[in-house]
Amino acid sequence: MTFAIQFLRRTANAVMLLLAVLVLNFCLIHLAPGDPVQVIAGEMGGASPEVVAALRVKYGLDHSLLEQLLSYLGKVVTGDFGYSYYFNEPVLQLIGQRLPATLYLAAASLIIAVLIGTLLGVISARRPNGLFSHTVTIFSLIGYAAPIFWTGLMLLLLFGSVWPILPVAGMADVVNPKSGLAYVADVARHLVLPSVTLGVVFLAQYSRLARVNMIDALSADYVRTARAKGLPEYVVIGKHALRNTLIPIVTVVGLQFGNLFAGAVLVETVFSWPGLGRLVFDSILRRDYPTLMAVLFFSAMMVMIANILTDMVYRWIDPRIRGGR
Amino acid sequence: MTTLETSAPLTSEATLLPAWSAASPGRIAFRQYLRSPSGVIGAVLLIMLVFGTLFGPLLYPVDPVDIVGGPFSPPDAEAWLGTDYLGRDVLAGLIYGGRATLTVGAVAALITVIIGVTVGAFSGYFGGAVDTALVKITEFFQILPPLLFAMVLVTLFGPKLTTITLAIGAVSWTSAARLTRAEFMRLRNLDFIKASRAAGAGDGHLILRVVLPNALPPIIVSATLAIGVAILFEGGLSFLGLGDPNVVSWGRMLGQNRNYVLDAWWAVTFPGAAMFLAVLAVSLIGDGINDAVNPRLRRRT
Q1: Distance between CA atoms of residues A271 and A101, nearest Å
Q2: Looking at chain B, which terminus has fewer C-beta neighbours within 10 angstroms, N or C?
Q3: Mutate to test the interface with B, among A150, A163, A198, A209 (most CBs of B within 10 A)
């Protein structure tokens, strides 16, 4: 019962925030210097005053701002995000085509970062001053400080010319297209470098976080109790200490979805991964505002969904939250 | 007689002790900072980078926009770090580009912290309706992916260095706000704050002179890290072609040469390495400050 109410409240909150993103989008477009119709006319290679006036009527720019805002919201609610002049396609369709690729990349990177990051942190927490721990600390510093696009380019350099064992561009082999399982394997091979590049930044932060929290957890009373009860070490660490180590990691993961999507944009540009990132890059280049705004909206929506999922994971890990709040 | 002998060293120690404890908290923190190896390494690294961009032209007087040779000539005695796709000197670009990158980083971080601390302070200090409203606004900014939002802002308002700096500041203040809010909420109900309020201190005085100084340590650490984030953001924006076309920056060098990475690794590797070292330096400094001001963490890391 309480859960249903909480869920409804969260959803209502999410819808309000997304509406706010749309209003922001609308305001930004209108605040930006330059007349949108002139931009479109410019894209068309110049237009006569009659055409400009016709465009103004066509896009409803002759109405008041409030009317324009309401009609914009009305269109978006019915799934009309405008038309991309550069791609010559409705924006929604463009995004629909590219969203899955970005989701694969983001998910793969997140899995790499959380699994390996936690593992490294937990192992190094067992001997905080050992050689392994110091190595992990140094590598996580490097991973955090290296610009993501630079790491990507360095990997591209390494695997593109020095040691060509992995594909460095695209999502699948276009010369010899595969099908069935072979296709899945092919996509997975193409996914390795982009997801590692994107994952490393987050991996660095999670391993640090896991290390500090694991060190804390291992000196806590409940771990001593568990050990005193004679539980094997893997149960003490894997069940008791790990649960408490994961909570702050889940918090940080939840806060970082926005950065994950933004990072994906950069990584996709480096490795020509056919996701939203490439779309953003092309629409920036062509000043394709409708597409850019729709991408901002959809990534905000994704962050929102991811936050709701994070909340559910939270409840699953931490029974204290499950009770109420 | 023996008692007199032992009392002599005791008194001299007693005179030493007050001198030690009389040191200001700032000096104690500074001394503590110098004990942290990461802090010292980071500070040395940052000083070297700043000096390099300030005094580099004296040692290496090459104009970064001059075409000094053929495109893609590898590092040699002429151009120490090679030339880029137009034949411009990479090292000269690094020296001048560092000025833009480091300035954008510092100014954007300052904007981030000013917005974040203002929002967080009001929210945490006043609580209630003010807090609810400000938390909603923060929540709203949090669901917009910061770099994407900055890209949209720069695309709409034009790629100028000021726009870029403002955009980075405007999109990345949420974590500073959350942090400040938490600190203010924690401090608000402590006895010494209540005492100041009972003594007649106004809200402005309490916020700026009483609560803020006590909330500063974590804010300083996050400000340091914000410089690193801003440098990475400037790089990311320039990399996507949203750098100021009239200013050389590390990110722009990287973005312009990235398509030729397989032909001229030096034109991409060095600007990225410079950016990496700058971010590494500020995050090491952040670690050092954290060690110095946060004794609880000191024994752990």
Answers
A1: 12
A2: N
A3: A150
